[in-house]
Give the backbone structure.
Amino acid sequence: MDVRDRKSVLVLAVCIIFAILAGWLFYLQVINTRYRVIAENNALKYEIRYPARGLLKDRNGNILVGNRIVYDIMVTPRDMPPFDTVEFCTIFGLDTAFMHAKFREYRLYRSRIGYQTLTLLKQVPAEQYHVFAEKSFMFPGFSATPRTTRTYPYQAAGNLVGYLSEVDAAFIRDHPEYRSGDYSGRTGMEEAYEMQLRGEKGYSIYLRDVHNRVREHYMNGKYDLQAVAGEDITMTIDGDLQAYGEKLMNRKVGSVVAIEPSTGEILAMVSSPGIKTEQLAEIGRYYDQIMKDPYRPMFNRAAMSPQPPGSVFKLVNGLIGLQEGVFTPNTYYPCNSGYSVGKLKVGCHGHSSPLDLDHALMTSCNSYFCYVFRAIIDNPKYGSTQEGFAHWKQYVESFGFGHKLGTDIPGEQGGTLPSAERYDRMHGKNRWRSLSIISLSIGQGEIGCTPLHLANLAATVANRGYYYIPHIRKSTPESPIDSRYMKRQYTMVDTSLFCEVIEGMRLAVHGGPEATARSVAIPGITMCGKTGTAQNPHGDEHSVFICFAPKDNPQIAVAAYVENAGFGSAWAAPIASLMVERYLNGKVERKDLEQRISSTSLLHKVRVRRR
Amino acid sequence: MTRAADTTRRKPDWVVLACCLFLTVFGWLNIYSASCVDDVQVFEWGTRYGMQLIWIAVSAVISLLILHVIPTNFYPTFARETYILMALLLIATIIVGADIKGSHSWLVLGPIRLQPAEFSKITTALALAALMETYDFRFDKPRSALQGFGVMLAPVLLILLQHETGLALVYLGFLLCFYREGMSGQVILAGFIAIGLFILTLVASPHVALTVMAAIAVIFAAGRSHFPGKVLLYGAGIVLFMWLLPLLWKWRWFAQGPGNLSPATWIAILATPLSLFFAIRLLIVRHKRYIANALLAFLFGAAVVFSADWAMSHLKEHQRLRVESLLGLRDDPTGVGYNVHQSKIAIGSGGFAGKGFLDGTQTRMNFVPEQTTDFIFCTVGEEWGFLGSLAILAAFLILIIRIYNRAEQQKSRFNRIYGYCLASCLLMHVTINIGMTIGLMPVIGIPLPFVSYGGSSMLAFSIMTAIWLRLDMENR
């Protein structure tokens, strides 16, 4: 090869090299789009604008759960010169040791922290912030970010509204729209209506440099997104009634549920002991304490705790018997201080005998309903005990028992109804008779229903034969509730038959010396009620009472369930009665009763396991 | 006198001049974009763009002096002297030079910092031109070749001692000039093969590198043999054998790399295919010269392969990491690969037409380190897009090819050699610098001529080009 041709070789080589460079640049800049995306993430800093969370309002539009501005105190360690630590700690009520520990931490990780801004204190109240803001010139490198936190004007309904907590890693994995530092509802309404309440986060875009220092507002905020405040949720709860119920149930274990029969709206749902609202706002601090509490305040007994209904269940058996035609309201059954067949005896208390249906309900006669129950189960038209039982069970289920009612209360439980198979296991296949399951006649034995079921029963009777599925979110024109809450749920018992038991319930309150709930009659209001005293293996009987009032055009149906408190008339009845009075009259005249009930502690009667 | 009259009448090569001016102005705009601060609206002389403007002015004045005042015969006459002076300056810099980022290549004279290594390119090019111009200089004479390499490598050695590996590497560009002047092309080929084997060894394994080398040798031999089919057959056998070898031996030894084997084991492993290979060669081509050459080539390749690991463990930590990062042996965008990763993001995000002057988010927010100096091309790529990148590439391509062409037309051998040295030097800078910013080359910190911020680089390339323009002007 001639040496002169070597120039051509070199020129060719140069061209090849430049072609490679140009080709690769073409790939990087024109074909590949990946780097454009990375560049945006690199240089643009999205600063989140937090929306105000939706409010929870009661049925009258009063705020049950509101918002309050608090401040997160932020610090950029890189910009923090030595400052008056003592003054700083005085403002926020801190221990100087805490600050020194923080300083050590920042020094130790200074290279990792760089120019980042870190959260030093969370949820500082506005009063402290204002003092800090006034003196902020003394603390360069510190800043405050406003956030909202929850307030509870009624200091009530803690278990219903639930709490918010900062999302954790597992939650973020399942809900990628959340970021670390966000809050989300974890229980109750806050959880159930998280989607509506949370609103939409907005952001401001800033340009930042390689040290993470924010330089300028990107395009003067042209591409910023405003935060959208969360939707308010109106609850069916009556804030006053709820707070009053919680006051009455103070230091007692149990629940009170009040329902407006004509709509199925839950007016109050008390579970006691419940979470105190001041603990809700700072759940992180109290969480361990709440979890260790032997009375389990987190547990919403009203919807989650199935218990034997006791004598209030006689209403159901009475209605089924009437529908089946196995007896009439004028059928008299004897009571000889109980119901005895052979060795078996269901005890009763002293009252006149024999009785018809109304008076049996009034005096809560056990024998009467043993006769009725046996007549239902052993009805000759069904041929066998098992067949009779199956029909009885169908009736009971039509009242909403034995399954979830389908409410919008998170964690609602369905309670239990015994199945034929269960009795087969207990007694042998088809070897059980109506006598074997006679406890069911008086609401004992293998049946469990929640206080919510009982309130629903009261509402069903008040409505003369149907109920609306109870719910706690009130329908508003902007956000109507599911149509299933608007549908009447009829029982299998004819509506005309309800009048008979309603008369019995009226007598139980207003029926004179033998009436079980005569002591809780409210002057000027015709109330229908039924007491219950549920035996249980845990200690004294549970005190149970369901009622509705007024008798005609009922406004409120209440179920009260006080665990291990004794007779139904002793605790549950006065509590339910006071609730009715408070709701219908707006005030309570029976101050002595109210005082006695609310100040008495029955906690010692409940056996608990240390946790 | 007639000469002096000539100079005033003749004009410098406008193509080269235009390319240089374009690169300088475009470069300055990008330095301005990368170093100006938004909230300061006034022009500040203390900033990088201000300083660069001063350097451009100084370079222009000196270039004018070279073009119109300093006589042309100064360069061949004093080439030897300036070369020796520069060598002394380099030595002095090693001793008294300020330690800036671990490099001892800077001379600090009051407010001015100069890097003699940049200027040493000029004196070396002149010295090479003066040396190779002589009538009896021929590359096939060992004495001449030694002299040539000696002149080229002496400054390289001194610059390596200054810890400026990048600038030292640029001197390899002079090999292209040597090639033009008659050096065997096999030296450069050997260099490329060495680099290829080196990379292959690190990326795959010594075993793969050896196999590939054997395959190349076989194909090469087949090309020259009278029985190419036979050679290819045997060659295939050898390659296959080399792949089966690990199965015969314990596979672990190979997989673990050469570090875990004793040298004796390696010699044993190597000896087998090697002896087989040459036995076959001997059978087919009865020509001793080929055998010697092939043996040498194979030993060279083997040496490269086995020195790769050794070299990697003896390179400076940051250099080794850069090489590993380039070869994808280390995926570490926040560590060693950070510069290149950010640089690729900046360039890649520019798209076809760029984000516009002063609108690059990456360079403006200092995501790319060294963005006014070694990584100035990022700003070009981000703010001016593919079009801007292409403009820079085109300017350099025209510049280099123009100089190659004009060099070939020179009457004097001195001028031609100098022209080739200049163009090759530019080629090395552009290839390494742009290749580095787009991730095709390891991070080797050398400036982009005329574009990067830096007084030494600006001045050195201006002087070097001005000398060329003057020489070229005289030639006509």
Remarks:
- Confidence is low (pLDDT under 50) at residues 1-5 of chain B.
- Strands of chain B lie at 98-100, 103-109, 112-114.
- Chain B is about 70% helix and 5% strand.
- The radius of gyration of chain B is 25 Å.
